[in-house]
Specification:
The protein is mostly helical. It is about 75% helix and about 0% strand. The relative contact order is 0.22.
């Protein structure tokens, strides 16, 4: 969970990282990455409520998108942050099961 968090943080600072996935794959990559991230954090911290894990991963996603303003030199992408949030909710929910 920590390694993926650091990888996502590093990707927000590398300008070409956004070029890995195009079109619909771009949103799938965001959704999948944050679903896996929340799943891993929930499994790593089993006593933490799934709601708290989802909220923390959602906050991380919004922060990562804010960092991309500098790293990728573009405006804040609210749609990406919302897709990240949806993935976080799914990942935390699946880990709770």
């Amino acid at each position: 969970a920590l390694a993926l968090s650091l990888a996502l943080l590093a990707a927000s600072l590398v300008p070409d990282a956004g070029q890995v996935a195009y079109g619909d794959w771009h949103w799938f990559a965001h959704f999948g990455a944050y679903a896996v991230l929340a799943f891993l954090w929930r499994r790593a911290l089993p006593r933490a409520p799934a709601f708290a894990i989802a909220a923390a991963v959602i906050a991380f996603g919004f922060a990562q998108e804010a960092i991309e303003i500098v790293g990728h030199a573009h405006a804040f992408e609210l749609a990406d942050a919302l897709i990240d949030a949806a993935g976080a909710v799914l990942g935390a929910s699946l880990a709770k099961l």
